Amino acid sequence: MKHLQIFFTALKLGCTSFGGPIAHLSYFHDEYVTKKKWISAHAYADLVALCQFLPGPASSQVGMAIGLSRGGLLGAILSWIGFTLPSFLILVLFGLGLGTIDVANHKHWLHGLKVVAVAVVAQAILGMGKKLCPDKERLTIAIVTSVILLFFSSAVLQISLLTFSGLFGVYFLKSNETLPHESMHTGKKIFGFLFLALFFILLFLLPLIRNISNTTEVQYLDSFYRAGALVFGGGHIVLPLLQAEVVPTRWVSNDLFMAGYGLSNAIPGPLFAFSSYLGAVSSASPNGWYGAIICLVAAFLPSFLLIVGALPFWEQLRKNQWIRKVMLGINASVVGILLAAFYNPVWTSAVYSPKDFALVIVGFLLLEFWKLPSWLVVIATVAVSFIVYQ
């Protein structure tokens, strides 16, 4: 009964949580803290702080952690399934539907989805920039990262820039923040160590297996696991990482990629569910549902291993000022990666004319200043695109 309650509570949130990671955390607080009282406000704030430090989708990791504290490992899995299932079904069905139509004959609304994605990403960058780059040192990290990636873009370079930014943070940034504390059930440290070890083993082992056995399944596992493992700063940063994995390999065309990304901002649930859409429309997948499930699990697995593995050690981690400074530098660099991705591929693949730019600035106005939910702005933009692009 307890596990069913965990699943259906998460499923309810997966059906109603529009607006992206920050909004998700507000929905979670209302449900888990205020209504269910499964976790105290202080413990919830402590948990959110931890998930901001770790790679992966913060809101999904918070849900997994609450499921873990409530119902053990099975509770964490059921919490993830419930929260992710609605967006998974919507995106896969959308992707399979696109596979049966001629994209060229539906260019108006597909282009509308790409254009509104520009406004959504622009708002995300502005919001993250205000929070993660409040001083000249961190703003400099972001700008330098962005400039370098605009000239030389690669996954290896992104990792290197994140590493150097973290080292810069140790020596030049200050962390004066204090975190609220209240203990919660997080499991044994020995199991936490095993999950963390498995995270790193898969990260380094999958590329080696791919060189030996280059099957479609192994390719998916390697590409999407690596993307999920390197996402510092929330779901939006997964865009350039996934784009670098699926578009150059011709698994997914850039048009299909941006159309799916636009839709993923219009539906409830985690943005990481976008990985299931890519698996469904991939030209390398023998079956859309099969590919979707593999890509979804591979993208979320790193965040699951990290949150379940890190929770038992959180008491020590949260007090370490060195780790705090590292994360300050990394988070600033994430803003720079987003800024570079905003130009290419987001802007360059969507904004071709004054009409496109007009829709972008109107969408940004509605999102940032009128505070309309992103799903409503996406729907409105797609509706207007049928008129504007005739």
Automatic annotation (TrEMBL):
Keyword Transmembrane in record: yes
Main location: membrane
Subcellular location: Cell membrane
InterPro entries: Chr_Tranpt_l_chain, Chromate_transpt
Membrane-crossing segments per the record: 77-98, 110-129, 141-173, 193-212, 224-244, 256-277, 289-314, 326-345, 357-389
Pfam family for this entry, one: Chromate_transp
Protein name: Chromate efflux transporter
Species this chain originates from: Leptospira levettii
UniProt gene name: chrA
